Amino acid sequence: MRLTLLALAALSVVPSLQAQAPAAAQPLSPPPIAFPANLPVLPAAQQAKMDADLLEIDIPHLQALYAKHKYTVEQVTRWYMGRIARYNTIYRAVQTVDTAGALATAKALDASKPDVTKPLWGVPIVIKANTAVKGLIDSDGWQGFALPGHQFIADKDATVVARLRAAGAVILGITNMPDFAASDTNRSTAFGRTGNAYDVRFSPGGSSGGTVTAVTGNFALLGTGTDTANSIRMPAGTSAVVGVLPTRGLTSIAGIAPLDWLLDNTGPIARNVTDAAIALDVMSGEKSPADPLDFRTTGEGRTTGADTAQLGPFLPYLKKDALKGKRFGVPAFILSGNTGFGVSQPARPTNGMQPETRAMLMKAIDQFRAAGAEVILDDTLLPDTFALNIRKITTTAYRLDGTNGWLAAFGPAEYRSAAAYEKALGSPLPSTLTGAPNPNAPTTTPQRPPTPQVALKADPNAETNYFAPQRAALAEYTAALDRLHLDGLIYPSAQMPPPDETMPQNGTLSSGPHSNTGWVNRIGVPAVVVPAGFYDSGLPFGLEISARPWRDGDLLGWAYAYEQTTKLRRPPVLVETGLLPNAR
């Protein structure tokens, strides 16, 4: 959920991991959350026998097995726990396993009959660590929320978690993420580093890297991600899974730790579009997305165009010929090497699209055309001036407002505000959450001038700072689609392949596979990433598709048609030892 466009200096809150790059072989200091131990796994022979049925299974096929009484929900739940027990010591995707809660849910489901009114009945899932799950430590990746005696343990579920639970899902546990979701890679002071399932030495991207590694590695059937600037989509691309960023307001962010609550969003991560569509139905509340705890889901707070929204169910949009006759373009500012700061520069390792990524994009364009779509390359389609206008949408003055709203509704009794946290623990929350300067930042870390913090609803400048520039940028986006008669856009989910984190990246500690797709969050339009092949290294390439606001059904239909036409996903081959799980 990296805020590239906001130029956060707040990564300095974890200097032990980021101030300098020690030798790759030097072990990390133990994080406060211990690796899940003593999981109730199945006997080895039974686990191996079930592999043939459950590896890469999707929701419809799993529920067909339940209907035939081939497996119980408890058996399937324990099979996934067996995968976690076997591989999580290397990949560190899952931070917490709710053994008692997951087995209790499984046994309760087994005591009833499969319920066709619950679309996720018996489906084991994982939840990202910034999303409240009642009774579990939701660390937001940060050691400060995992301190013994002061853990962030919510007394209720986030809205999307409550909806998933009500739909019959079995919540296995919590996935790892970088501190506050403020990174393009997946290092956490609460639980350590997550590796890419296709090669653990490489980055899975951030900040939903724990979920994508868990889902692509078959530690769970699907999971949740969050996204402020790329954090569902870029990691999905690194790991050959489907990641959905809905139109802002289709899903509620209530109960999700804010990185920037005016840009934050949440959506599903799955191994195929069908599962993602089913999960999005549930997370959005289908025909009733409104949540009084998230003003962007209700009334005037919704993204422009909500009165004609495609609210689901989404499965009817999934048609193999959905791309036929459709017309797409590639944004000019992405092709030109724009980093998102409004300045085009020649492509090089530190910015712009790398040559191997451009080559993969061109293959994907050919695949779109083969599926019946037209794809145009036009220098006037969202040029660099669009990136400059995107920057006019400013949200930094409202960061503390978002943090206090989240803590007031979902925080532990000990601290229901940023001020209460400082009083209880004797130190302030990091600047990432409050917008205040970071007194603990290394002297080598440049500090942004502090932005006075105000409440959005009370700010007379909110229209000038946020609402009006957002409407103008969204209008520019839709006008460009109208002018060129486009249905949507396509482009890489990251401007580079995943980096090897055992090696320096451009001479410094690896900061992940960078992306310049945060403009999507700024205007609130939907986007989806689908597996689109593999680099020569064997690491995945992801293609991102964006659409007009509230055309989420059409978007999923295009992704499904591309997926079914190409069938480019292949599962990773996981290892149990030997590939530097603590690589830095």
Automatic annotation (TrEMBL):
Keywords for this protein: Signal, Transferase
Domain Amidase: 76-556
Top-level taxon of origin: Bacteria
InterPro entries: Amidase_dom, AS_sf
Gene3D superfamilies, alphabetized: Amidase signature (AS) domain
Stretches the record annotates as Disordered: 429-453
Signal peptide positions on this chain: 1-19
One term of GO molecular function: transferase activity
Start-end of Low complexity biased regions: 436-446
Descriptive protein name: Amidase, Asp-tRNAAsn/Glu-tRNAGln amidotransferase A subunit
Organism: Terriglobus roseus (strain DSM 18391 / NRRL B-41598 / KBS 63)
